[in-house]
Design brief:
Length: 481
């Protein structure tokens, strides 16, 4: 009896939540749905309200997430209309069209994120702001991440954390690469952003951040008990910690010092933007959103692809061993530019980015009617520039589903690079963390392949809602002598 009561109550609650969810979508999009459809675009708007979202998601969970796009490309061409995640959407799987969209400014297109995500981001988050203020913040952060100073700090910090973690690897139990790299990359990121060292505060930040990101793809309902509410509470705790760090920096006079040690210093030291402590702390947490998961997944996927391609692994190992021996002979420690100097290692990273599609694409919203290459994108519609479709297009890449780092040694590939290879996006919103990501992956691969042999357990890549390994990539390691 009690069970029946609970299950009925649960059903009513769940039905109400689902109804509310679709009502919010419906109200939000009623206006745009009424707009006339782009006349020259083929495609299907799918079911009322949900459009083609369920098909998109279910393909995302299969081994071949490309099916959704491939089917429609065959039927409608490289640019087509659809209805995804509550919005009428134009999907671009065309490298040239996507490039124009990415290069456009905020008068034409602005980023569009799920409602739960915008609720969690601050209003002045780098991910949400546009125009000159965005250019300013993006420029400050991007140039700091490119600076030799930061690269040297990241290198020594990453090496320390990596070697400490590897020293604890046991030959008698599997090592979960996805967990190991996540733990390391989070600490590297927190140090680069707010100057935090390992310890109690770092542990607190890690726990709260996991609670925070759990809300990124949740229902956009902020009521006690909902995931969104819990995530907002977690963000408050993190902001409190960052505000404390900022105040300490102000007391210590970092705000007027010449040399910025982390991104917080960069924003504090900037005299022209006059950023408040609240805005800086908010942004530090929001910067962790794109930075936290992507780098460990890059490293994990590289291990996966290398485990399946012994020839590439052999060449990578040889190249890195040669560097290691040369540096040992000279008695020099490895610097950040040594790690980035190896052409085959960089090709492995590039090929991992191409095949892995850690960010499968980005969504923009049209601020006015925009015409691109003869396609009309109506005001209010979303555009999904789908990187994965281009990265796996056999018109651009021979045998695209085949892990082939050698393809990047062909000079012709570089001329095509900017158009058909956009793992870090492009234009005004090009990922400011791209150098950091490449550096961390290079350091990881160097130490991993020169110090260990391994056998990987069977594992598969999941592509939705984010890219990750189903079993966290377990491997059995043996230390090289
Ligand atoms: C493999 C690693 C990474 C990949 C594949 C990646 C990919 C991307 C992509 C595709 C975008 C463009 C989003 C858009 O156009 O709307 C982006 C933006 C961004 N990324 Fe990364 N990213 C990576 C690592 C990082 C790291 C380590 C950071 C460090 C904090 C970072 C910070 C950002 C920020 C702040 C933006 C937003 C830029 C803006 O809107 O102006 N990313 N990233």
């Amino acid at each position: 009896m009690e069970f029946i009561f609970y299950s009925t109550t649960l059903t009513i609650i769940l039905s109400t939540v689902v109804l509310l969810f679709f009502t919010i979508f419906f109200i939000n999009n009623r206006q745009s749905l009424r707009r006339s459809l782009p006349p020259n675009l083929l495609g299907s708007m799918g079911w009322p309200i949900i459009g083609e979202t369920l098909d998109f998601i279910s393909c995302g969970y299969t081994d071949h997430p490309q099916t959704f796009m491939e089917k429609r490309r065959l039927l409608y061409g490289k640019v087509f209309k659809s209805h995804l995640f509550g919005s009428p959407t134009i999907v671009s799987t065309d490298a040239k069209v996507s490039r124009i969209i990415l290069q456009s400014d905020a008068n034409s297109f602005v980023p569009s994120y799920p409602k739960s995500l915008t609720e969690l981001m601050g209003e002045a988050s780098i991910l949400r702001i546009n125009g000159s203020f965005h250019r300013k913040i993006h420029g400050l952060i991007g140039s700091f991440f490119k600076s030799p100073y930061l690269k040297a700090c990241v290198t020594s910090n990453m090496r320390k954390l990596l070697l400490r973690s590897m020293a604890a690897w046991n030959e008698d139990r599997p090592i979960y690469i996805q967990d190991e790299t996540k733990h390391i990359a989070f600490q590297v990121l927190a140090k680069a952003l707010i100057g935090l060292d390992p310890g109690e505060e770092m542990d607190l930040l890690m726990v709260q951040f996991q609670e925070f990101i759990a809300g990124l793809m949740s229902l956009p309902i902020n009521l006690p008990g909902t995931q969104l509410h819990k995530s907002l509470q977690a963000k408050k705790k993190m902001i409190k910690l960052v505000l404390r760090i900022i105040r300490d920096k102000r007391i210590d006079g970092v705000a007027c010092s010449q040399h910025s040690k982390d991104v917080t210093d960069v924003l504090l030291n900037d005299q022209s933007a006059k950023l408040t402590d609240e805005l800086i702390s908010d942004n530090m947490i929001d910067l962790m959103i794109p930075g936290e998961d992507s780098v460990p997944i890059l490293m994990t996927l590289a291990v996966k692809y290398l485990s399946d391609c012994p020839k590439a692994l052999h060449q990578l190992k040889e190249e890195n061993l040669k560097l290691k021996r040369r540096k040992e002979e000279l008695g020099d420690p490895l610097c950040w530019d040594d790690y980035l100097s190896l052409p085959f290692t960089q090709s492995v990273i590039k090929e991992t980015l191409r095949m892995g599609n850690i960010i499968m694409g980005v969504i923009r919203k049209a601020m006015k009617d925009v015409e691109i290459n003869g396609y009309l994108i109506p005001k209010g519609w979303c555009v999904l520039t789908h990187f994965r479709s281009v990265h796996l297009d056999d018109n651009y890449y021979e045998s695209p589903l085949h892990f082939n780092p050698w393809r990047w040694q062909d000079k012709d590939m570089n001329s095509f690079n900017n158009i058909g290879f956009t793992p870090f996006g492009g234009g005004l919103r090009l990922c400011p963390g791209l150098d950091l990501a490449r550096l961390e992956a290079s350091i990881f691969l160097h130490h991993f392949v020169t110090e260990f042999r391994w056998v990987a357990e069977k594992d598969t890549i999941i592509n939705f809602p984010t890219v990750r390994m189903k079993n966290r990539m377990p491997i059995w390691v043996k230390k090289e002598h």
